[in-house]
Design brief:
Blueprint: H1 5-23, H2 34-39, H3 49-57, E1 64-68, H4 74-81, E2 85-90, H5 93-105, E3 112-116, E4 129-135, H6 145-155, E5 156-167, H7 172-178, H8 196-205, E6 210-214, H9 221-224, H10 235-251, E7 263-269
Parallel strand pairs: 1-2, 1-4, 2-3, 4-5
Antiparallel strand pairs: 5-7, 6-7
């Protein structure tokens, strides 16, 4: 059935707005820091969100990975450097151009395929990927979340791993308090953290869904780490970050604190 014109126009407007937002936020293109590769290689410290995700991925040698909303290619080149063959998708032409340059200067162009297109319409072959990876992408797609997840899970191989890290809002009171913290927030117009309703949508597509919660006190990292760079921070700053992450892991394991997480990792397997 043909899509109604009003819906199509709304989609086009949203895609243009999102692409424009990400086109304006460029990053420097540098060779991969050896300390970054070391950090995301085993053994992993599971109290850190991204290290936890790389632990779940396991050995990436020869694996095919779809990086959903790959942005400037930071995650994609790390995945490729650790042995994966990566397909990255993003709506922003500037981000894709940056990712291509990042792949080139790191000698990873042959391991990376980069596509500029909206997720809702990109041509993805079914049963193609060992891993579908997304980093803070689903909360931009809430109006079409179920349809997007249907497409993404279909392109994973049967039994393939699907893993996302997303901002979450399971405690409205805490979220209001967080907004009182004087932190500059850059966001697209329609995005918001995932709530319980969205988690149910994800679980319909990933029946064995597991959720790992992060970022309670660790939200204060931005005041501790210059440019959010853990690897090159001073020992004192890394120690403070480690302490915050440790306290988070202890608190978020307590039922009464679980709803206070600011981010969560959602992972499961295609049926």
């Amino acid at each position: 059935m043909e899509e109604p014109q009003s819906t199509s126009d709304e989609r086009q407007k949203r895609w243009k707005s999102e692409a424009s937002f990400f086109d304006e936020h460029g990053t420097a293109v540098l060779p991969l820091d050896p300390l970054t590769i070391k950090r995301y290689s085993p053994p992993h410290r599971l109290r850190f969100n991204k290290e936890f995700r790389f632990h779940i991925l396991g050995d990436l040698t020869g694996k095919t990975v779809l990086d959903v909303g790959c942005g400037d290619g930071t995650n994609a080149v790390t995945l490729a450097k650790l042995g994966a063959h990566v397909t990255g998708i993003d709506i922003s032409p500037k981000s894709i151009a940056t990712a291509q340059e990042r792949a080139r200067i790191n000698g990873l162009s042959e391991r990376m395929r980069l596509i500029c297109a909206p997720l809702e319409v990109v041509d993805l072959a079914p049963d193609s990927f060992d891993i579908v990876w997304g980093d803070a992408i689903l909360h931009h797609l809430i109006p079409e979340l179920d349809a997007v997840l249907e497409r993404l899970t279909a392109c994973a191989k049967p039994g393939g791993l699907v893993i996302f890290s997303e901002p979450v809002n399971f405690n409205r009171t805490l979220r209001r308090i967080r907004f009182m913290v004087p932190v500059r927030i850059e966001a697209t117009p329609d995005e918001r953290p995932l709530e319980a309703a969205e988690v149910r949508v994800i679980q319909r597509r990933l029946p064995d869904l597991r959720v790992a919660r992060f970022t309670l006190l660790a939200r204060l990292d931005r005041f501790v780490l210059p440019n959010h760079n853990y690897e090159r921070a001073s020992p004192i700053r890394r120690g403070l970050t480690n302490t915050l992450a440790l306290i988070d892991s202890l608190l978020l394991a307590i039922p009464g604190f679980r709803s206070m997480a600011g981010t969560a990792v959602f992972y499961g397997h295609r049926r």
